[in-house]
Amino acid sequence: MAWNSCDGISVRRSEAEVVVAAKATRNEVKHLSDIDDHEGLRMHLSFIMFYKREEAMKEFDPVMIIKRGISEALVHYYPLAGRVAEGPNRKLVVECTGEGVMFVEAQADVSLEDLGDSIGPPCLHRKHFLYQLPASQEILASPLLFFQVTRLLCGGFVFAVCMNHVVCDSFGLVQFLNTVATMARDPHAAIQQPVWRRDIFSARNPPRVTCTHHEFEDVLHHSTTTTSSSHEDLSHESFFFGKKEIQTLRDHLPQNLQKCSTVELLTACLWKCRTMALDLDPNEVVGVSSFVTTHGKVDVPKGYYGNAFVFPMALSKAGLLCENSLGYALGLIREAKGRMSEEYVRSMVDLMVLKGRPMYRTQGSFFVGDMTRVGFGEVDFGWGKPVYGGPVGAIPLSSYLARFKNGIMVPILLPQLVMKKFLRELSKITSEEEFDLSKLQRIAFDSSRQYKPLIFLAAPIILKCIWEAKARTEEEVESKKHNEWSLVLFLTISVQFAMPTFTFLLKPIALTGFVVSKPSPSLSLFTLQSFIHQFATFSFSSKLHHARVATCIRTQALANALSVADRSLSQPSS
């Protein structure tokens, strides 16, 4: 075994060995689907799992147990012991030669406790625990799976796997790993039988593209600002979203989007913050894709382990994405996912054939994969569930959402200067102190018509307050140029005069969320925040859980009531 010491950790690796199926298997050629051999999947992906010590397993060696499980599982998943080859028109096939997969055992001089939170993505010590693939490693004529099992001082271990993406997706890999785990515990146990059936995702005859696929559209106008950068310049960071952060993001949404999934919400947040950090030309078109499984949309048999996902893309001009609320980004993402249907899947498969398996759109694009429900955290080799199981980290242009402790960890790769801007934007949008106009607009969707008359009933009272406040406002404002500040002072002083009189009218208006019109364009977010701060001094008690949101609601109702009253005065009588 050879020692490798770095980052305060020493790991001793054995020579790589080949693990073959426990029994003889068929020698044949199997075709991959038209999704499998897509250009963008011709790559390797790595996943890692950390297991703590299990007292009941102290007499067993995880290396030997898992190696045996792999050998037994390859009897059922024998194509994974073969090699990928390229046929006419670059069509990929798997030659089931039974050559086996690669396996390395290792020993680290640290315990799981020593590693702490560094096990989450991006795994700080990943180069110690992953099978070291040569930089020139190709997907053709090469093993399809690479394993490394590293024993830890505490009795726990680290399991890492690197897969050739053309043969399976993350769900397919987890299905195989669960079989390995079952075989490791009991070689005679019943398993979910694997299904090859790659013809399910083969093009129709004749192939026909019937849907719009933005994710494969050619980009005619290239950006002057890209995310391409040398690996040395890239910063690899991760961000944790717990219940508090996720709820704060939801507070930015209008009522009609409140029931969105957490994955959709985080995808919108990442897309918006990333685009703002890149500081692109406002007219540049940017896109985001979420990987969506076809299970439930296409009749995929249980046990299928090939690539079975599509990634519909949402598009927007960078300027619109940055200027609008989080709800704008989320709406586009949900609209894109809403296009997902069986016909959409069939159309995409046909496009692969007609266009020669084109590379997905990369210019201005961002891809987000949901690993929270794939099942890496459920794989049990006999030592229980892993403390963490999922992707090792992000890859260029892509991020993954992974379960970590009581929340979701999101690794992301960006140039160092862009990463600083991204962190700043993300901090703003996840801060409880940050107000967004979409919060105020949200209440319009739940308005009740029965409260419309109340605003007009309040108008005479408010007008009286306006008249009494006029003199004081003029004293505070030196020039008509200060229109915005005038409005702040005007509203604040008006509130002081009016509060005792119209609180009983304002409360039902605020609680039902009726909004007459959107805020004046001249009323900036900063101005509104200033007004909210002043208004909070006079705000009435509220039983609403989020007091800050309640204040926003009350402020919006008041501002619009004043606006309506002012307009009604300025209109000539008929």
Question: TL;DR?
Answer:
By secondary structure, this protein is of the alpha+beta class.
Q: What's the arrangement of secondary structure elements?
A:
Blueprint: E1 2-6, E2 9-13, E3 17-19, E4 28-31, E5 44-51, H1 62-76, E6 83-86, E7 92-96, E8 101-108, H2 112-115, H3 126-129, E9 145-151, E10 157-164, H4 170-185, E11 234-241, H5 243-250, H6 262-278, E12 285-290, E13 292-293, E14 309-310, E15 313-317, H7 318-323, H8 326-338, H9 342-354, E16 365-370, E17 388-391, E18 398-404, E19 407-415, H10 416-429, H11 437-442, H12 452-476, H13 483-512, H14 525-536, H15 547-570
Parallel strand pairs: 8-9, 12-16, 16-18
Antiparallel strand pairs: 1-2, 2-8, 3-8, 4-7, 5-10, 5-17, 6-7, 9-10, 11-19, 12-15, 13-14, 18-19
Helix pairs in contact: 1-4, 6-8, 6-10, 12-13, 12-15, 13-14, 13-15
GO molecular function, one term: transferase activity
Keywords: Transferase
Pfam families: Transferase
